[in-house]
Design brief:
Length: about 280
């Protein structure tokens, strides 16, 4: 309880308080009430709705791709011999535990205009692409890099869920003529749905907190095309000396994530099956 109070409750109350002030890193703070929030939603800060849209677009693309790909890979791993399945799970999980900053810098070297990817394209006669200098390609590059980094976690969790399915249920479904995709969607997925729901909630939360990828890979550019809420929060607090506005951004993000999480929990009875 002491740790919870010191590291969770007090910082939350402090950040909410700071969000009501014009609070520089050095100097005297000034109480401004809800002016920081008004500035955001009134359009006085022209970048706010852009970074909000970028964050939502990234979260949608990343979450959908992550869940689809990780579920497919997990289902494939389940049908491999146990030894190969374990080795591949370790390989997929390695990027998860490696430093995000180092991974992003390596991907930046790969995707630069004169990087490895464009050199490979040139070697086969294909045109080079501005991976990090085109708004749409930059967002796509950020999603791909994030997938490479984060797929392993969901793969391990979903594989564990699949391994927990009673083999007799699968054998009975085969005897009843359920094979291939039909067996997956009518038998496997309903049993796997609690694990899939957990992965969905955690992936959405992680996607909205994205920071290292735009910070190291694209610097939020070109323009504001890959700037996200957490990156804008960091810049306002530590580059622009606006701790009050940064705290307000943090609380807006907190409310968005809480509402999305509550929405997911409110809808889980429609498709999550806990009776299996």
């Amino acid at each position: 309880m002491t740790g919870f109070l010191i590291f969770i409750v007090i910082p939350l109350v402090a950040s909410l308080t700071i969000s009501l002030f014009s609070w520089p890193l050095l100097g005297t703070s000034e109480f401004v009430g809800i002016d920081n929030y008004r500035r955001m939603f009134s359009g006085e800060d022209p970048a706010f709705y852009t970074i909000l849209r970028n964050t939502v677009v990234f979260a949608l693309l990343y979450t959908a791709a992550n869940l689809i790909i990780s579920t497919g890979i997990s289902y494939w791993l389940q049908h491999l011999p146990n030894r190969f399945s374990r080795i591949l799970r370790i390989i997929f999980f390695i990027p998860v535990v490696t430093p995000m900053a180092g991974n992003a810098l390596i991907w930046r070297l790969l995707l630069n205009d004169d990087g490895v990817v464009n050199s490979a394209l040139s070697s086969i006669g294909a045109p080079s692409l501005p991976w990090l200098n085109n708004p749409k390609l930059a967002m796509g590059s950020m999603v791909i890099m994030s997938l490479w980094q984060g797929l392993g976690y969901n793969i391990v969790v979903l594989t564990a869920g699949l391994n927990g399915i009673n083999p007799s249920v699968l054998e009975a479904s085969e005897l009843d003529g359920a094979t291939g995709l039909r067996r997956f969607f009518q038998v496997v997925f309903p049993i796997l749905s609690p694990t899939f729901f957990f992965c969905t909630v955690m992936t959405v939360i992680g996607a909205f907190k994205v920071f290292a990828q735009p910070f190291f890979l694209t610097k939020g550019g070109p323009g504001e095309s890959t700037n996200t809420i957490v990156l804008a929060l960091y810049r306002n607090g530590f580059s622009f000396d606006k701790l009050g506005y940064a705290s307000a951004l943090a609380w807006v993000l907190f409310v968005i994530v809480m509402l999305l999480t509550a929405l997911q929990f409110s809808q889980q009875k429609r498709w999550v099956n806990y009776d299996s």
